């Protein structure tokens, strides 16, 4: 492995605009195609003309604009906070104010003293495991990581460098880095009250222990072991006591790297007590250093941010605190976002749309003539048990504690983050879900659809029960609902394969780029979901109120509008065997050409936007 010192990559913000010259060109440009010729271009030509692809971009879409808007809105929660916006924003403001320099200098010692005193009281080997468990309970995971939600999994996390290669490789660059690291350890220990001479010795002890543990921290087959057997094989680690200290249940644990834990267990002995005290002292401080006073803060920043990451300057305390809040209290940010940009009324109206679509879906399943072999019962059970989260659950933001200092706030946030990690609940959103982005996604293992607050705004949602609410938001929801049904062994395999084959043939005939055609097979599941979603949401829309021809046209325009996108030919060609979505044009024109209701709304005859009636695929007639 070649070690890399990773500089932070700067993001380049590009602002798109229409110049007066471009505006004049647009005013004399040919009008968009007719709705019955190319509905995608009929709706999106103005956007496409106003948004030429910037140099260096492979593609750009309306979804990119929505993501950028959500990111800017999220940024304002920190850069332009409003007082009195709501309890979540007020709490977020108070947390960020704790990073004020005048408040930081006061009580780092008050925070560190009880931690370091506990470590200093280590006199026997059994005290080492107890101290490690205590630090975990305080939100400072030392030596290893613990994940109670994932089968009580223990995994190695015993080093101060970001990569194992800093310990295992032997070359001048690594030697220099190790020397810089030891110097940093010595600075931290000296600042904490250790004499200069002792700090030199203790820094060597820390690095020596890390070198031993790094050598056994690599990937290896995991071991599932009962607590009873673990007490025999790893007696010094006291795993049963550790689980009790973390309020974790179960009678088995999983060790991600058994050799690592065997090594740690063997190193917990009377001869190594002073090594462990030095190690735990340094690492407890090191985890809090981004939030402590000087010189802890600047020493940490110079070593990690500047020397290792290659940043020009260290991160600010404010940035460090923000990253900690994002990791340990993400629902606080989501609640503050909702207070400012999405009110309860909008979420209630979104719930009304999802409920209407689910009701329509149930009716469609019940009347379906091809729901055989108990498929109807299965699908209705999926609908009945489906959980729909609109915005992250924020009822537990009261557990986010604002303290009188940055260090104390940071320690409480670290503890909270560790608690969240060890006690996942049904309300928790998966860690890889970006709640700040506009998204609507189905989680099959939980039979749950997650809808972010950022999605509940134009052009996807206006909260008025309008064509946009159903044509865009409602259809996206129905689309994911359809995927839920398809992923649950959709009723009749023969019928499903017939439907899929019909769409495969249809999409295989669409142009991807030049002579290349769309991959109808790879995109077939999503193509089915798009058509199914449109059918279900249209039925819910028509049932919700009296809808005239203009209202029906607006429904279809709302769907087409959200897929505005421009791609380079190279990007389209590269997507052929990689993307399970058809190009944007065909996500609009493809399903609509199968819908007689679209043809009626726009008075289209058989042609590009209306397949012959006998050839149209109708999933939920």
Brief digest:
With 621 residues, the chain is of the alpha+beta class.
Written overview of the protein:
- With 621 residues, the protein is an alpha+beta fold.
- Helix content is 55%, strand content 6%.
- The chain is built from 27 helices and eleven strands.
- It has helices at 20-28, 39-50, 62-79, 87-97, 101-104, 108-120, 125-137, 165-168, 172-191, 196-214, 227-233, 239-245, 258-267, 273-288, 296-308, 317-328, 330-341, 344-367, 375-385, 406-422, 467-486, 493-508, 524-544, 549-561, 569-574, 584-592, 596-602, and strands spanning 59-61, 144-147, 153-156, 223-226, 252-255, 387-390, 440-443, 448-451, 511-513, 516-517, 565-567.
- Strands 2-3-5-4 form a four-stranded mixed β-sheet. The protein has a three-stranded mixed β-sheet with strand order 6-8-7, with helices on one face.
- Helix 9 packs across helix 10, helix 10 crosses helix 14 (273-288) and helix 22 (493-508) crosses helix 23.
- It is elongated.
- The protein starts with 19 loop residues before the first helix and ends in a 19-residue tail after the last helix.
- Mean pLDDT is 87; it is low at 1-27.
Strand content: 5-15%
Largest sheet: 4 strands, mixed
Helix content: 55-70%
Q: How many helix segments? A: 27
Element layout with pairings:
Blueprint: H1 20-28, H2 39-50, E1 59-61, H3 62-79, H4 87-97, H5 101-104, H6 108-120, H7 125-137, E2 144-147, E3 153-156, H8 165-168, H9 172-191, H10 196-214, E4 223-226, H11 227-233, H12 239-245, E5 252-255, H13 258-267, H14 273-288, H15 296-308, H16 317-328, H17 330-341, H18 344-367, H19 375-385, E6 387-390, H20 406-422, E7 440-443, E8 448-451, H21 467-486, H22 493-508, E9 511-513, E10 516-517, H23 524-544, H24 549-561, E11 565-567, H25 569-574, H26 584-592, H27 596-602
Parallel strand pairs: 3-5, 6-8
Antiparallel strand pairs: 1-11, 2-3, 4-5, 7-8, 9-10
Helix pairs in contact: 4-17, 6-14, 7-14, 9-10, 9-15, 10-14, 16-17, 16-20, 18-19, 18-21, 18-23, 21-23, 21-24, 22-23, 23-26, 24-27
